[in-house]
């Protein structure tokens, strides 16, 4: 059993959750454990230029808000950055920040493209891409797993999902890297905004082309869909294309990096998995719980409501910290032990309720493909440098992972 020392953790009321630097510290498990024990639901004080907001850290309380689309809304933002800024420009157009009947209609329409049957060809591409990439790096003395493997799998998957022409993919990847949390320190805000605008313009052009050249991809679904007899607006199409990159690229990439790092840090789990003592399906869920790439999601209260014994006023910002809930001692026995055989494992990595991640099946398939490939073709893994933590209050993970693989 793995224990932690709460005495060394900071007082919850002294922690600034708006500061990305908070999340590169080494005692995050201790910090969140103290939050759950002493201030499970509390009001984060305002910081310069930013209003106060509520912090929800226990599993049951987070679940209660995720399920409640009557008293809470995502339409004014669903992450801390946009909530603190006053809202999201895609509200009411992009699935993640749309509620009610419109959300249900768009989601049901898009779900047709995300069923296991519809995704068979995409999953086949995931497995081939993963196999090819691992095959290329096992022969090297050392390499950066983030750059040479992890960043290519999710973007390739998204491009397959939307039938992005092969010649356009390198440019789309380059633009997207400029907008990501893990790359933000390397580019100015202007560069990031310009890259985001280039992506939106690209999808606008591609949507016009796709209307004349329909296929069985997600973009074809979006450009032909009708809700109450009307086609989706151009903004709805573009924003929902962009949301697939937002939701599917960076979180999948850092989960992949976390998978390899966790095996290196927990060699007994790698031995068990390699020996076939744990199935890929079961191991995938612990990988997802342990990684929890999206640390939080957010809502605004529509009415006065109680959460965890605290009275929240209409209009208040409420943040749900998956990175804490996934280690809640009341739900996960011995939560600080990485146990690939853990069952049950009802983590909140993909959220819950009406906004449960649309791409959860595909995210799992990406990890399953990686796990199977590692078990089959990699004998040893070794860290050959120091991984650098991403400075973000939304995304948890590492920017790089210098490693060496031994071929099986």
TrEMBL record:
- Gene3D superfamilies xref list: Cytochrome P450
One molecular function GO term is: cholest-4-en-3-one 26-monooxygenase activity
Q: Where are the transmembrane segments?
A: none
Going by the entry's taxonomy, the superkingdom of the source organism is recorded as: Bacteria
Instruction: Name the keywords, alphabetized.
Output: Heme, Iron, Metal-binding, Monooxygenase, Oxidoreductase
- Asked if the record carries the keyword Oxidoreductase, the reply is yes
Which Pfam families does this entry report, sorted A to Z?
p450
Q: PROSITE patterns attached here?
A: CYTOCHROME_P450
Biological process (GO), any one: cholesterol catabolic process
Give the record's family classification. Answer: Belongs to the cytochrome P450 family.
Q: Which PANTHER family match?
A: BIOTIN BIOSYNTHESIS CYTOCHROME P450, P450, PUTATIVE (EUROFUNG)-RELATED
Query: What is this protein's name?
Result: Cytochrome P450
Q: What is the protein's species of origin?
A: Streptomyces zhaozhouensis
């Amino acid at each position: 059993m793995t224990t932690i020392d709460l005495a060394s953790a900071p007082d919850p009321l002294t922690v600034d959750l708006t500061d990305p630097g908070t999340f590169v510290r080494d005692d995050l498990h201790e910090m969140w454990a103290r939050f759950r024990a002493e201030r499970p639901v509390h009001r984060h004080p305002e910081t310069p230029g930013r209003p106060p907001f509520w912090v929800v850290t226990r599993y049951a309380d987070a679940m209660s808000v995720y399920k409640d689309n009557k008293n809470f809304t995502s339409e004014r933002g669903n992450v801390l950055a946009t909530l603190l800024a006053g809202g999201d420009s895609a509200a009411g157009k992009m699935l993640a920040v749309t509620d009610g009947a419109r959300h249900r209609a768009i989601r049901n329409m898009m779900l047709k493209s995300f069923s296991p049957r519809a995704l068979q060809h995409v999953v086949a591409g995931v497995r081939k891409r993963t196999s090819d990439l691992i095959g290329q790096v096992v022969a090297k003395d050392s390499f950066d797993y983030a750059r040479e493997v992890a960043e290519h799998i999710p973007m390739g998957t998204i491009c397959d999902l939307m039938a992005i022409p092969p010649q356009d993919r390198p440019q789309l990847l380059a633009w997207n890297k400029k907008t990501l949390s893990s790359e933000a320190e390397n580019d100015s805000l202007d560069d990031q905004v310009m890259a985001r605008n280039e992506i939106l313009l690209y999808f606008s052009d591609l949507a016009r082309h796709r209307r004349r050249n329909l296929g069985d991809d997600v973009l074809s679904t979006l450009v032909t869909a009708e809700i109450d007899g009307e086609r989706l607006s151009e903004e709805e199409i573009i924003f929902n294309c962009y949301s697939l990159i937002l939701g599917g690229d960076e979180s999948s990439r850092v989960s992949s990096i976390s998978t390899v790092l966790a095996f290196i840090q927990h060699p007994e789990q790698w031995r068990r998995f390699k020996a076939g003592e744990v199935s890929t399906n079961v191991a995938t869920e612990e990988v997802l719980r342990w990684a929890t790439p999206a640390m939080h999601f957010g809502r605004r209260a529509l009415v006065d409501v109680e959460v965890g014994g605290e009275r929240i006023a209409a209009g208040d910002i409420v943040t749900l910290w998956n990175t804490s809930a996934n280690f809640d001692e009341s739900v996960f026995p011995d939560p600080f032990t990485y146990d690939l055989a853990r069952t049950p494992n009802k983590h909140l990595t993909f959220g819950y309720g009406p906004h449960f991640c649309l791409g959860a099946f595909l995210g799992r398939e990406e990890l399953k493909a990686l796990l199977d490939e590692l078990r089959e073709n990699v004998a040893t893994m070794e860290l050959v440098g120091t991984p650098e933590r991403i400075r973000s209050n939304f995304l948890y993970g590492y920017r790089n992972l210098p490693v060496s693989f031994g071929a099986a």
